[in-house]
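Thread: "does anyone have the structure for this chain?"

Original post by V.I.:
We have the sequence but no experimental structure in hand. Need at least a predicted one for the grant figures.
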Amino acid sequence: MFRSAVLPAAASWVRAVRPALVVGLVVAGLAFAVMHGSTDPWLFGYYTLFGVCTGLMAIISRGVDDSMRQALAEQLAPFIDGASADHPVTLELKASAPRQVRAAKAAVGHALEALYNRAQIDVLRRAQMIIAAGRDAR
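Reply from O.Q.:
Generated one for you, tokens below.
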């Protein structure tokens, strides 16, 4: 939660990249330490440093590792499949020319990239593949 939600949210408070990185890491590290509820200053400092270091590792590694993405997709797939069965939505693009279809697909792709990071998009893609494989097996 701290590396994937608090860090980017706090980093968005600052416009320049490097200060944003520092602000995001410090705020996420402090939030991590506060949530552990230690009253010992040395332990609080340890938790803060640990939070900053794990945040930095997440930034350097660009998110979640491959096995964690697959596990998350496997857990998420039944929920997505159940929700889509209960509330079907058609995502067919309607356009009068192939060029409009390409433009619409590009717009949807840009919107997804703006809303989600690469790891989240990869998890959703994997979950969709799991759902499709399950439907093919039926």
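V.I.: this helps a lot. The helical segments are 2-11, 17-36, 41-61, 66-86, 98-115, 118-137.
O.Q.: and The chain is about 80% helix and 0% strand.
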